[in-house]
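Run log // design_07
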């Protein structure tokens, strides 16, 4: 079995391009995804895109844009200031397809 996700949903706020200290582009997005078995329930999933994907997402989407994203889930442990450890989960986007009719582009 592979570590892989595929999500289709609407971006919940305008994405903002940011840079790491090494000048690598990235963007966090939140995606509203309806559950397949229960259309009345929406999950809100935070994802991160890097480099060209981040730039394309910021250039071609706005709040409400419909996208399909695929990628890998990464977990990492972080130590908090009180010494406890906390597991952080990141959904790293490897491919994004813009599904709005006027902006149907894949990156």
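design_07 sequence
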């Amino acid at each position: 079995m592979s570590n892989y996700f595929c999500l289709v949903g609407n971006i919940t706020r305008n994405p903002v391009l940011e840079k790491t200290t090494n000048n690598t582009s990235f963007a966090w997005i939140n995606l509203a995804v309806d559950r397949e078995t229960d259309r009345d329930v929406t999950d809100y999933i935070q994802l991160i895109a890097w480099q060209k994907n981040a730039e394309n997402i910021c250039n071609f989407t706005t709040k409400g844009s419909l996208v399909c994203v695929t990628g890998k889930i990464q977990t990492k442990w972080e130590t908090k200031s009180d010494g406890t450890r906390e597991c952080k989960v990141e959904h790293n986007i490897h491919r994004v397809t813009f599904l709005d009719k006027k902006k149907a582009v894949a990156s």
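The chain has one helix and six strands.
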